[in-house]
Design brief:
The chain has 1458 residues and is of the alpha/beta class. 60% of the residues lie in helices and 9% in strands.
Length: 1458
């Protein structure tokens, strides 16, 4: 039977607790069915445009058949009969419903036919969209899953209504329809991973990428991750891929399209480009966020009804059940929608990160060389993206804050009428002050990030040349400089921090004062009546609480959003930098039109278009070309007219600084062409520079590069470059990782690997820029003939070679001679070389008869003892992670952090922040007693109004202490400790540790400890104390609620343990995954000239994309794990609310409406407190992962021992006598498994002798110098001027001994700073310089100028600022930089009078003229000094008193000459 009210839409006096049938047909059928059909059409068209991802299978048909078949059937691709059965079931059910409703004429309403028809059509649409979605989507659609879930509930509600009205047939059909929808819902959750057609897509589509909507909602895909994280050590292999939508290549393509459209339109073009590129993802996050708003604003009205029911002693069973259901819906539904919204925001953030970093990596390949070497990408992807992360969610909340504020004002009018408009005041204040704070915060954040970039860039420069810096005794100065950079950064950050204090303090005050304003206005206008009623006050304050949260976030949203835009602007500035433009004319295989400025016989160049055809007689042609470096007005080489023929050997000769490197870079297109046209065939060009670019990969990967691997060719080039024996010395042979820049190799090995890579590439053109400077003469000569001789590899591969070299034998293999006279002129001779040119070349190459006669017999066995020993010293610098410790956490980390902070100031701050968290809940408690004791006494308002100001004041003090005392002190102390350990690390550790790993300690970890730990620490204490207070309030309403306390504690304990075990390890993996990405980006920036030359931009970018994808996985899964914890905390708060509703409505206790209202009010904010507290703590725990890595690094890094040392005498060494007795040295003294790098070496070097060390690369020459400088542990004794160096402080020892290393040291700063590095200070406090100090400074400057003039490198300084000119702006060539390093040693000798000089091939890149000048200066200024010279070439030790040959770490019998 039907009810009398079924014909009404919303009856006020229904005889049963149920909706009317008209309401159900309208709202529960017509509305969802029509909405589904509307959106289904768009969804169908969208999927129709997508490719087919999934093959036919039984799962498709099972989705269209009853759940009856689910259990019994197995997958088969031939079961087409199920389609017909399914269609019959679905259509029959809907047709039956339509027929039955038509049959019951007495129960028909004007909406019945429309509802039944739309349901039938919706069933047809569902079948169609299920089919297209299954084939064209990798995972189930959220839209379909939500619709099916909704239909299950709606069909259940209709079924109840029909059975209440005794309409059993319709009720049965509705029940069956609900069951079918539920079956489809279950089938939609089945993963399609095994059904994907493309194996590559299947590889990246696991976990969340293929699971159903409800599994995604409840984070079921995280179960394997949590299981691995809880039971053992989590590794990257345990993490599932996160889907093709996150792949860097796809994200790069998507953002590139919108960026090109929006580029340079405004300062925020990049931000808008991201918005357009990911507009669909923004909408996907916005829709559930709107649902959160709707459900949370339903909570106060649920509260009002529950409180009224308690006050009225409501006994109606259906009413009480409905109120419990409403509580579950509003609180539980809000928790689920919030989880969806936040998860969508995290997905969007991850998409933006991948797109931005991929775009920056691509841009880095196209920058000019000076801009590329700044390594700005590293700072932008760390510090700036952290700024984007901090402001992203707040920015997303800005529009919703206004919506929620408007809704709150509207709903408040139902309780306090016109008093609700006072909410406008804090809204206006939050908006205005947020914009003002935002402007200042953006500028401060930008300056801070610039300082971070400056610190990271300069620290990277220090780390890349750290061994050479330590050899000069500049380790303490380098540490002081790095710490100065950190101090400068922290000092700059204080302005940002102080603005932060103002923002958070004002937000806290605004948050707390809003209820006070509403209550004050209500009392003033009398809208609350004569006394305070709980059924009015608590729902009203609940609505106010819902307004408080968005307004507080709005207050912080503007500043942080503007700071976020500032980060976007910095990235945009990087992306808008001027790109490298190839000045060459590239000649293709087919004729092509080239439009550019063409030179004419008279007058300036003329813009025009010419058709360029390939000339087979040459591959490079200079047509009146003048070459100059970027930014220079005067060309270095002028009017070049010559051609490079295919397969020819072209030797380039010229004095130091004549432009040989410029000539080679001109062919590469890396210098400016001021005049003429340079034609180059469009081809890859192999390059071997003076300092080869070697990425952190294995021997094999470095040599093969991006070419196809061929074992025969690989063996041929390894043999030709004499690398076979070196490779076999390493434990992993060709798979040995050489480290960044080839740090595990000697200088000669690095150059030979570079030559092998060029030979393996077999390009049509090979450029060799002095590639033999670090090789001894026999080795260099052998390799030269193996590569360029008559039967050399380059001739066999028909490669044209342009090379410059010191080797006289280069004249014997060359077909063409290119001579640079040093004044900008270039001449060329082919075939037989004229005698005048041959004489000039002989002079340049320093080919002296006396030297030739002194040619020593060299051993054929070349060893790699030094580097192989280094390789054994540390098993793996990057992977030294205690997985169990990272899983369980370590409370000692907090003690470690506190010890670097200061316990006193930390305890004071904790006291203030705990008081703040407690005071936050006091206004609500105060209000309870006000209502309970004197609801009509308005004097209570004075106390109520004072509490927000007291709380805000205490909060501001706590924040000030945190940001201006606690964090700066901790940041500086930890950085100082890190710098000390790195600067005192052993050479063995530095030899195997990738500089990218060290840099990530100074960049990523330091940024986390500086930017992540402070807010996480503040929020942990603030929200933790607040959550405890709010929990106590919420449990105080009913006595039975106290039984929840142990239950809650147990749940929270196990959840956080389950979560923390995994999140700590995910954070560790996140940090570890960033280290190789940072290294790869830095290597790509450093080797941009090589990459462009070889034409490897695409494979290098592909490798970077792969590493970016790898780094995205742990980061995104960590976001997901955090949101899982947020969902649990919100559901716990909802559970408390539901249990409170059940107990207060069903259990007869002494609970009052006042107590229940206060408890419900606490529950409204409890979920947020739980969420924020647990999230803050877990964020702190995961951020502390950086501290774990730092602590491990500080404790496990092998550092040089300073035990038993005493300061050296003031004038030591005064004579230079060296006595070495039975010295056996290893890189780790106690590890007898290593072969010693020096074996039983005994030698006596008299004062004033020049002692020459010969031997092939790896024979132990450099190890001997390292031992004298205290780098190696050894047995035996080394005495210098009566002092056993084992008792000397290492840094003092190296500072007193003058060293000229093979590796050039270029310090950031002026020429004066580079030549007087020991005098450089960074004390910001200006001290008054007296006359004596001024005279001394002038004397030193005079010595520096004299030295530079003698070395012929002063002229270009005279017009650019003299000694104050920044070194990076001078533009010295490689040879001139070598002269600058020699000048540093000469100046040091003249100032200190040290009598011991160590030289490691000081003149390898100098011509005879410059070499002669250096020899004369050294004879003059180092007269009477003991000089120990490591020679890679015999002429370097031609004037030695004693020479000794080394082989396999042993020293042969010395040869005395005079």
């Amino acid at each position: 039977m039907s009810l009398p009210t079924d014909g009404l839409f919303w009856p006020f006096n229904s005889p049963v607790f149920d909706f009317s049938l008209k309401f159900e047909e309208t709202i529960l059928e017509i509305l969802p069915s029509s909405s589904f059909l509307l959106f289904a059409a768009g969804t169908y068209l969208y999927y129709l445009q997508q490719p087919v991802y999934v093959r036919h299978s039984l799962l498709l048909w099972l989705k269209l058949v009853s759940v009856h078949y689910l259990v019994n059937l197995r997958v088969s691709s031939k079961s087409h009969v199920f389609f017909k059965l399914t269609a019959a079931i679905l259509l029959c059910l809907e047709a039956s419903s339509l027929a039955l409703r038509s049959t019951y004429s007495d129960y028909q309403r004007d909406t019945t036919s429309a509802a039944a028809s739309l349901d039938f059509v919706a069933a047809l649409g569902l079948l169609a969209i299920l089919y297209i979605e299954h084939r064209h989507a990798i995972r189930s659609s959220a839209f379909i899953s939500l619709y099916l879930g909704l239909k299950v509930l709606l069909d259940g509600a209709e079924c109840r209504s029909y059975f209440i009205r005794k309409l059993q047939t319709l009720g049965g059909v509705s029940a069956a329809t609900s069951a079918v929808h539920f079956a489809l819902l279950i089938l939609e959750e089945v993963s399609k991973e095994d059904l994907l057609i493309d194996p590559e897509i299947r590889k990246v589509s696991k976990g969340e990428a293929t699971c159903g909507f409800w599994c995604r909602l409840f984070f079921v895909y995280l179960v394997p991750v949590f299981r691995f994280g809880t039971q053992g050590t989590l590794q990257m292999d345990n993490l599932s891929n996160i889907g093709i939508e996150f792949t860097s290549k796809r994200l790069h393509t998507k953002l590139t399209k919108t960026w090109r459209i929006n580029k340079r339109e405004s300062a925020n073009s990049l931000f808008f480009a991201c918005c357009w590129a990911f507009f669909a993802a923004i909408l996907a996050a916005a829709f559930p966020r709107l649902l959160v708003t709707g459900l949370t604003f339903g909570q106060p009205f649920t509260m009002q009804r529950v409180i009224a029911a308690i006050g009225n002693n409501e006994d109606h069973e259906d009413t009480r059940g409905g109120l419990v259901g409403a509580t579950l819906l509003t609180f539980g539904g809000a928790a689920l929608c919030k989880a969806i919204a936040t998860q969508m925001q995290y997905r969007l953030l991850t998409l933006i990160r991948g797109a931005l970093i991929s775009l920056m990596m691509d841009k880095g390949q196209r920058l000019k060389v000076p801009d590329s070497k700044k390594n700005a990408v590293m700072t932008l992807m760390t510090a700036d993206f952290e700024g984007i992360t901090d402001g992203f969610s707040l920015c997303f909340d800005i529009p919703f804050a206004f919506v929620e504020a408007g809704l709150g004002m509207y709903f408040l009018t139902k309780f306090v009428k016109q008093s609700s408009f006072v909410v406008v005041l804090p809204l206006m204040y939050a908006t205005a002050s947020g914009i003002i704070f935002g402007k200042f915060l953006t500028k401060a954040n930008k300056r801070w990030n610039e300082k971070i970039q400056d610190r990271v860039t300069n620290t990277s420069q220090i780390l890349s040349q750290l061994p050479a810096i330590k050899m000069l005794g500049l380790g303490p100065k380098a540490m002081e400089y790095v710490q100065h950079l950190r101090t400068s950064e922290i000092r700059t950050s204080l302005k940002y921090r102080r603005i932060q204090v103002g923002v958070i303090g004002s937000a806290t005050l605004t948050d707390l004062i809003i209820p006070t304003l509403v209550v004050a206005a209500s009392l003033f206008w009398g809208t609350l009546g004569d006394k305070l009623e709980p059924e009015v006050m608590y729902p009203m304050l609940a609505i106010v609480a819902l307004i408080q949260t968005p307004l507080a976030r709005l207050f912080r949203a503007y500043p942080y959003s503007m700071a976020m835009l500032g980060c976007f602007q910095r990235i945009q500035e990087f992306l808008c930098q001027e790109e490298h433009e190839d000045p060459r004319v590239l000649v293709g295989a087919e004729p092509r039109e080239v439009t550019r400025e063409w030179p004419v016989l008279e007058g300036p160049p003329v813009q025009g278009t010419r058709i360029i055809e390939r000339n087979p007689s040459f591959i490079v042609h200079f047509d009146g070309v003048s070459l100059s470096v970027h930014g220079a007005e005067t060309p270095i080489l002028s009017d070049i007219n010559l051609s490079i023929e295919p397969g020819s050997m072209n030797a380039v000769f010229g004095p130091t600084s004549s432009g040989k490197t410029t000539f080679i870079n001109g062919i590469l297109g890396e210098v400016e062409i001021s005049e003429g046209v340079l034609y180059v065939d469009e081809m890859a060009i192999a390059l071997v520079g003076q300092m080869p670019w070697l990425p952190n990969v294995s021997f094999r990967e470095c040599i093969v590069g991006s070419c196809e691997y061929d074992q025969v060719r690989f063996d041929a080039v390894v043999s030709a470059c004499l690398l076979a024996e070196d490779i076999n010395k390493f434990p992993d042979k060709a798979d040995h990782i050489i480290g960044s820049g080839g740090i595990t190799l000697s200088g000669g090995q690095r150059q030979r690997v570079g030559l092998a890579r060029a030979a393996y590439s077999a390009t049509k053109l090979v450029l060799l820029d002095d590639p033999f400077s670090a090789l001894d003469h026999p080795t260099a000569t052998a390799i030269l003939h193996n590569l360029c001789g008559q039967n050399g590899l380059f001739r066999r591969y028909n490669c044209a070679v342009v090379f410059s070299s010191y080797l006289p034998e280069s004249m014997d293999v060359a077909d063409t001679f290119i001579f640079l006279d040093g004044t900008g002129n270039v001449s060329l001779e082919q075939g037989q070389v004229s005698q005048p040119l041959r004489s000039r070349v002989h002079q340049l190459l320093r080919r002296e008869v006396a030297v030739a006669k002194k040619k020593e017999k060299q051993t054929s066995g070349e060893t790699s003892s030094r580097r192989s020993s280094v390789a054994d010293n540390q098993p793996s610098a990057v992977q030294r992670v205690d997985g169990k410790a990272s899983q369980q956490g370590d409370w000692s980390l907090y003690r470690f952090w506190m010890n670097h902070t200061g316990r006193g100031i930390l305890l004071v701050w904790i006291l203030f922040i705990c008081i703040t968290g407690t005071a936050d809940g006091l206004p609500r408690i105060y209000l309870k007693f006000w209502i309970q004791d004197a609801p009509s006494n308005r004097l209570y308002f004075i106390g109520y109004a004072s509490l927000p100001f007291v709380c805000a004041f205490i909060c501001a003090i706590g924040l000030w202490l945190l940001f201006n005392a606690v964090c700066p002190r901790n940041s500086l102390n930890l950085h100082r400790k890190m710098a000390e350990v790195v600067m005192h690390a052993t050479i063995g550790f530095l030899g195997v540790t990738d500089s990218g790993y060290l840099l990530s300690r100074f960049s990523v970890d330091m940024d986390i400890l500086t930017k992540k730990v402070p807010p996480a620490l503040h929020n942990t204490f603030y929200y933790g104390v607040g959550a405890i207070v709010q929990t106590g309030i919420s449990l105080s309403a009913a006595s039975y609620m106290t039984i929840l306390i142990p239950v809650l504690l147990v749940i929270l304990y196990y959840v956080q343990q389950y979560y923390l075990h995994t999140s700590r390890q995910l954070r560790r993996l996140d940090l570890e995954a960033q280290a190789p990405l940072i290294s790869a980006i830095r290597e790509a920036s450093d080797g941009v000239v090589y990459i462009r030359g070889f034409g490897w931009q695409e494979p290098i970018l592909k490798r970077c994309f792969y590493l970016l994808d790898e780094s995205q996985r742990p980061m995104y899964l960590l976001y997901c794990a955090q949101q899982f914890l947020g969902l649990v905390s919100d559901l716990l708060a909802a559970m408390i609310g539901v249990i409170l509703a059940v107990l207060t409505l069903y259990v007869k206790t002494n609970t009052t409406a006042n107590s229940a209202g206060l408890s419900f009010l606490a529950i409204v904010v409890l979920g947020g407190c739980f969420n924020e507290a647990i999230m803050a703590w877990t964020n702190l725990e995961t951020a502390i992962g950086s501290l774990k890595r730092m602590k491990d690094f500080l404790e496990q890094t092998a550092i040089e021992s300073h035990e038993g040392t005493a300061d050296l005498p003031p004038n030591w060494p005064s004579s230079g006598a060296v006595q070495v007795s039975n010295v056996t040295a290893r890189y780790r003294a106690n590890d007898t498994r290593q072969d010693p790098v020096l074996q039983n070496v005994s030698v006596s070097i008299s004062p004033g002798q020049k002692f020459g060390l010969m031997g092939r690369t790896g024979s132990g020459k450099s190890s001997f110098l390292y031992t004298l400088l205290g780098f190696l542990d050894y047995e035996g004794s080394i005495v210098i001027d009566g002092i056993d160096i084992a008792t000397a402080p290492r840094d003092q020892l190296r500072a007193r001994i003058i060293t000229i290393s093979q590796d050039q040291v270029a310090l950031d700063g002026s020429i004066r700073d580079n030549l007087l590095p020991f005098d450089k200070t960074w004390d910001t406090k200006a001290s008054q310089i007296n006359e004596k100090d001024q005279e001394e400074a002038e004397r030193k400057d005079k010595i520096v100028r004299e030295t530079l003039v003698r070395l012929r490198i002063w002229d270009r300084l005279e017009s650019t600022g003299g000694l104050d000119t920044l070194l990076k702006n001078v533009g010295y060539s490689h040879g001139e930089m070598q002269l600058l390093c020699i000048a540093r040693a000469v100046v040091r000798r003249r100032l200190t009078g040290s009598k011991l000089l160590l030289v490691d091939e000081a003149t390898g890149s100098l011509d005879r003229w410059r070499d002669q000048i250096v020899r004369e200066m050294m004879k003059e200024y180092f007269r009477g000094c003991t000089i120990i010279v490591v020679a890679h070439r015999e002429e370097s030790i031609a004037d030695s008193n004693v020479t000794v040959e080394m082989e396999d770490g042993e020293m042969k019998q010395p040869r005395h000459f005079y």
